[in-house]
Specification:
- It is built from 14 helices and 16 strands.
- The protein has about 375 residues and is of the alpha/beta class.
- Helix 4 packs parallel to helix 5 and helix 6 packs across helix 9.
- The radius of gyration is 21 Å and the shape is globular.
- About 45% of the residues are buried.
Length: about 375
């Protein structure tokens, strides 16, 4: 079974981490257009919000691929253990090749504890989820209004009391002032923005949107930290876009799961709120290399390069945005009294254990893009 232990945040001092310290409270405001409905003020609570104690019927519409799929897996477990009834509807067919990857290969763990697992097309959700009357619906699938609208409209017709949506922190416009906080300007033409606006207009008794960044944790099938492990275990230099001090945010999925569970159990408090679904610490690119090397008990060398000078597409050569990109979970801390438990030092050890368990450290790999970078950067000094 998947371990659900809570790890304490590290208190060690290291150049790899930055702790965000902005403090805030939130009041709802109505603003026109594709904007957040929160206003930043002052004051931050420290304790968890008290739930209303009501046991609910929850439907999770789960994506069939990508880093977000693991959110539905973890949340199903957390809600079921809290006494709620949970159905997870995965896009597509159970027999598809996509289901041969985690977390789908571990859905037996959900069925063992009583979670209902079904497959289907969310655009025809009335045919898939017609039997049960749900209190809460979470859309963890759609990136645009065309995909989410059928689910949201169906939920509205069925009298669903709370509608939750997994959006993305990529919705924020680049800014000179980081971290991104709820209420910052967003890209009005982003697909997630249109969804958030539409859900707000439907006026559910309770609604909320969650904006994650990069996710780690058991069951994740999107290569992020694995990209680093692939190079470190083979003794290869790790090519990092210069200068390597860019800051980003990687959150353990248990943080997202606990935040969502609090929103389900405190629907009145969560209503009308945008939540940055991220941990409260950030890490540099170079720092992430060092932490992955620590997890693998290996040495690592870093070669910095300029993507344009090398003539490569940075999106194909590196798993993260090549800039400072991190958000702060201000709303969750203030309104839900949520606390982060992400501890990359320990969490990456868990991921490396799984990396070795599937034999990925033994697979023969080609690093053609890396080789081009290293050849162009042969005069660079490894650090």
């Amino acid at each position: 079974m998947l371990s659900h232990s809570v790890l304490p945040a590290t208190t060690s001092s290291t150049h790899a981490f930055y702790r965000t310290t902005r403090i805030s409270s939130f009041t709802k405001v109505k603003l026109p257009g594709f904007v957040d409905r929160v206003k930043v003020g002052g004051g931050c609570g420290q304790a968890r919000a008290a739930g209303d104690g009501t046991k609910k019927e929850v439907l999770i519409v789960n994506t069939d691929s990508g880093g977000h799929a693991v959110i539905g897996f973890w949340l199903s477990k957390e809600l079921k253990r809290a006494g709620h009834s949970v159905t997870i509807l995965t896009v597509g067919e159970e027999a598809s090749d996509k289901m041969k990857k985690p977390p789908f290969t571990r859905f037996a763990e959900l069925r063992e504890i009583g979670v209902q697992t079904v497959w289907g097309n969310p655009s025809d959700i009335s045919a898939v989820a017609a039997i049960i009357s749900y209190d809460v619906v979470l859309d963890n699938n759609g990136k645009d209004l065309d995909t989410v609208k059928p689910v949201a409209d169906w939920a509205k017709r069925k009298g669903v009391r709370q509608f939750l949506y997994i959006s993305s922190a990529g919705i924020y416009k680049p800014t000179y002032e980081l971290p991104h906080v709820e209420g910052d300007e967003i890209k009005a033409d982003a697909g997630h923005a249109g969804v958030e606006e539409y859900i707000a207009e439907l006026a559910f008794p309770s609604w909320a949107s969650f904006r994650p960044q990069y996710i780690t944790g058991s069951g994740n099938n999107k290569d992020c930290e694995e990209w680093f492990f692939d190079r470190i275990v083979r003794g290869r230099p790790v090519p990092i876009p210069a200068p390597g001090l860019q800051v980003t945010n990687i959150s353990h999925v248990r943080d997202l799961s606990s935040m969502l569970a609090l929103a389900v159990e405190n629907s009145g408090v969560a209503n009308g709120t945008i939540f940055n679904a991220v941990s409260d610490r950030a890490v540099t690119f170079d720092g992430l290399v060092r932490l992955c090397a620590m997890a693998a008990r290996k040495e690592a060398s870093i070669v910095h390069y300029e993507p344009k000078a090398v003539g490569i597409d940075a999106k194909k050569a590196f798993p993260f945005r090549c800039m400072h990109f991190y958000a702060e979970p201000r709303a969750a801390k203030d309104k839900l009294r949520w606390k982060s438990t992400t501890n990359l030092v320990e969490d990456l050890k868990e991921r490396f254990q799984e990396y070795v368990a599937i034999g990925r450290d033994k697979i023969e790999m080609k690093f053609e893009v890396d080789d081009k970078i290293l050849l162009s950067s042969k005069n660079s000094v490894a650090v």
